[in-house]
Structures are given as structure tokens and as C-alpha cells.
Amino acid sequence: MLAIAQKTLAIASLHAALALPLLAQGTEEENIEDGPDTESMAAYILKQLNEREQNAYDRYEKAMATEDVHSIETELQSIVDGYEKLINAAPGYSAGFISYGMMLHRVGERKLSNAMLMKADQLDPYHAIVKNQLGNYQAEEGKYPEALAFYQMAIDLRPDEPLYHYQIGNLLFSYRKFFLDDKLFLPDGIDLEIQSRFRQAATLAPAHLPYRLRYAQSFFDVARPNWEAALEEWQQLVDFVTDPGEKQMMQLYMAKTRFHMGHHTAARKIIKGIDNPSLDHSKNLLLDQINNEHPR
Fold first, then answer.
1. What distance in Å separates the CA atoms of residue 137 and residue 80, rounded to the nearest whole number?
2. Is 287 helix (H, G, I), strand (E, B) or coil?
């Protein structure tokens, strides 16, 4: 993930320090501040923290089953202490703030995570993953215009990353009323933008089912959907998935699309072939809707 300095003496001393529950007071800070290659030393410490962090999470998942989590929690606290030492010793090293911010987010410390990532963004404003995470925080706080701005900056930096397009689609859908009330979008414009973002994510990652599924579902979210295009998407998804349960779920969406197109006979025919018990409730709701509008 990051370039690692190959300095034998530095590695030997830092490895010993990082193996302790807490980083030794003064040792790493003096090495980083006084050494000839601050960036390389900081990168090495960061690599060690990243590896320890991932190992701790892997152990934590296994320990959850046995309820033996105390030792892992202690290790995570030690890693937090290591990050604190690192950012204090190398306050201009943006990668340290990014990793620390992402870890804090992972353990639920949202506000502190956001503060670390804001600092990273000030140091180096060219990391799309930071823009995306800052956008997530703003969205969770209900600050939808700010979230949109951060997501758009992420796209400007990484236009081919499907996640960032997907994020904007979800944001616009979730806060549609507020964007319209603030006159930031017109109704037709925001619908076009929602679908455009989901379609872009699906196009950039055609093998990723969640993106393709969300794009197909978006036809039910907009005021004036193109049902012919929707039907084509659902047919492609029926052919794309191999799991029988997933295939029947796509077929049920096809039936719903047919119903909206006014093809109630075709919709009933599709529904008749769906026998997965987990879809019974949704299937019966759709049948009731069809029968209410088109009684036999």
C-alpha cells in the first residue's frame, strides 16, 4: 500500500519498539524527527501498524465466537497508541493520518476519525478515498450539499472508481426531497442524475451484482421511468445470476416491471413460476396489487 524504506538499522530498532504493548516514550519520536529520511521512517512505522491492525481484526473475528476478545481489545488500544505516537512524531505525514482515521472509523469513533481525515486532506488534498470518507461523514450528519461536494471531488480524482458514482446516486436518492426543497436540483434533473450515477457504477463494474442491481432498482425510484430500459436490465440480471434464489428474485422484479408497463397477464405468468418460499410475501403483495388493478 505504501512504499517501505529498506533501512536495516532502522528496521531492527523500530521492530523491537513496535512489538511492545505501548510505543517506547521518545525512541520513535527522536528517530523520526532526527533521522535523515523522515518519510521513510514514518512509512515503515505505518506499515507495522497497518499489519498489526489487520491481524488484530482477523483475530477479533475468530475470538467473537469464543468470547475471548479482551486480549485483542488490548492490542487494538496499543495500535491506537502507536498511531498517536506516529502522528505526533511526523505531523506532516498524511498517510499516517489517513490510516489512523480509517481505523477510528472502523471501531466507531466517527468524530475523531473525521478530524484525522480532515487533517490528512489539509496535508494532501489528492486522496480520493479521503474525500469519499469525508463525504460519508457529512452525509451521516445530514449535511448533504457538503457530502455531494466531497463525493464529486473523489470522482474528479478517480473518475473510474464505481463506488464514488454509487455514493452520489445513494446520496441524491436519500436526500432527494431536501435537494429539491433547496432548489439545488429540479425534479427531472435529480432523477436523471440518480440514474446516471447508478448506471455509471454498474457500467464501470459490470461483474459487481450490487451495483447492477441498484441501477435496475432505480427505475422504481424516479417519477418518469423508462420501463422498456428497465425490463432489459432485469432480463440481463436474470441471465447474469446463477443462484436459483437470486434468479427468481430478478424474475419477480421483471414481473413488477411488466405490471408497471400494463402487461398484467405477462406479470402473472412470471409470478406463477416463482416458488422460492423466501419470496412468498413479496410475490403475494405484487399479485394483490395486480389483481386490484386488473381483476380477473
1. 21
2. helix
Give the long-range contacts of residues 286-293, CB within 8 A, separation 24 or more. 286/252, 286/255, 286/256, 286/259, 289/259, 290/259, 290/264, 293/264
Do 145 and 169 share a domain, yes or no? yes
Same-domain status, 188 and 203: yes
DSSP at 246: H
Task: Specify the pLDDT at position 41.
Answer: 66
- Domain end, chosen from 102, 123, 144, is at 123
**106 and 136 share one domain:** no
Q: Which domain holds residue 275?
A: 228-296
Q: Residue 288 corresponds to which cell in the numbers above?
A: 394483490
Low-confidence stretches of the chain (pLDDT beneath 70): 1-39, 41-42, 44-45, 57, 60-69
Which amino acid is residue 237, in one-letter code? L
pTM: 0.77
- Residues 98, 189 within the same domain: no
